[in-house]
Structure formats: structure tokens, C-alpha cells
Amino acid sequence: MKDIHAVFNGRFDSLGNIKISPLSRAYTFSDSVYEVIPFYNSNIIAFEKHILRLNKSCDSLSFCADIEEISKEITELIDKSNLNDGYVYYQISRGVDPIRSHMYEEDISIETFGYVLPHSFKSKNLKVMLCKDLRWQRCDIKSTSLLGNVMTMNSAKEKGCDEVIMHKNNIITEGGASNVFFSDDDCVFTPKLSKNILPGITRELLIKEITAKGIKVKEGSYNADDLLSAKSIWLTSSTKGLAQVVEIVNQKTNLEIDHKLFKECNNIFTSNFLS
Ligand code: PDD
Q: Which residue minimizes the CA distance to atom 4 of ligand 1?
């Protein structure tokens, strides 16, 4: 931890030296938002989109953050790390309470924290578990309140899985830390944006690039039967890129491993952002 470059309230230090107050609302209430910002070959992938989403998350919770300063800190962290491939985790919380209280004081100052890690963007095959979406009703905000995700992902881990695919009222929402795509032989499908899913940046980039190459994409409401009859399924995120699902535990599927539409989409994404 000593060697991990980090920044806390504007001060650069190694991660191990950073101390937070137990009265930080990040700690007591998860009253915080975050971004995971990938970079490859020293280029930040979709930086403006990440900053815009961070700003939106702050607005949703009425955090008054200096986004310009934060953008500078993120690029400085990457510069200081001397890494070619990796990601920055950056978190903004409402700040530290004088004493724990659900209702915050108006004059509280926001608390910011980030670090940079090396990461390999090699695409992985995943075993996943289908599960009920236990989360709150504002999953479109990139908040650190992730207990629903943590609970389902750890029960999936006990079954030897790498990820989950969640459903709410029988409608597929998203992965535990990713968005879901699936395909038949000629069309790609993905759950439409709503308050039940995070508007993933990898999702957005992929839809734009594959549509431009003439691949049909439908955004809609899909159920578990739609997913289980798919020829290919994959999850997307800033750290996973596109990761193919090869097994859904305890479910019969029609999956064709390395299906042509998955391969085509993965090649388009890789050649645009990871080469
Ligand atoms: N998570 N949905 C959820 C619930 C997520 O946590 C993430 C990403 C995504 C994909 O979003 P994007 O393509 O913008 O990374 C969708 C990050 C990587 C994380 O929490 O580590």
C-alpha cells in the first residue's frame, strides 16, 4: 500500500499514509460518489464522460465539488504513477460531521480521495449467477452505497462465480459491477437506461461504435428467458472492457462460446480503445 500513489483532500501521498476521520460521512452513511477511470497506453479512456458522470452524481446529492480541480488531480495521479495501463479510483464524500447525524450541516466541506493502480485490460471469460436485484431505487447514481451488490456478489463467489446478473420484477437490470449485453445471431440487446441501472460509460462507447459499424443494437426490457436463450452474453465495465459469460450457474443456456457477434463487438471495442 505504501507505493500506491494517492491523493486526499488535494494532498498527494502514498495510500498507506492517508487517514480519515471515523465521522466522515463516507464511513457512517456511504454519503459519497465515485468513479473508476481507466487509462491504456497512458491515454485516459473517455475522460470527459467520466468527469461529466462524476459531476452529475455530485449534483444528484447536492455536493459542491470543484470538478476542474478534481480533473487535474486525476491526471496528476496518473502522471505521478508512471503507469501505462491502469485505473484511478476517485471518491467524493459530503465531508466530516461534527457528530453523526442523518441531517447534515449546510457548511460541511466535501472530502475527496483517489488512488491509481496498474491494471491489465485482457478480456476474461466469466462464470456468473442470476440473482434478485436487492438494491435501492437510484442505481443511476454512482454512489458508494453498494451493499446490495456486495451481498449478491459474495454469494456468487461462494458458488465459484466471478460476477452476477441481477433482475428486478423479472426484468434484467445489470451486473454487480458491470452492464449486461447479449445477442442472438444478428442483433445485440442490452437493458435500456433507467433509475435501476448505472449509465455505464463502456456501455455507451460500445453501443456508439458497434452501431457505427452497422451492428443492430436494441435497448429494451428483457427477462431471464430472453437472456437464457441468447447465443452470447457479455458484461462491460471500465475495468473489464467486454467480458464474455461462458456459464450461468444452475441454468441451462444456449451459449456459443466466442460467438461471432461477441467477437466482432470485442474487436471493435479493442481496436478503438485498447490498442
Ligand atoms: N463499476 N454497473 C455497475 C453497478 C458498476 O459498478 C459499473 C462499473 C458499471 C459499468 O460502468 P462503466 O462502464 O462506466 O465502468 C455498471 C466499476 C468499474 C467499479 O465499481 O469498480
A: 177
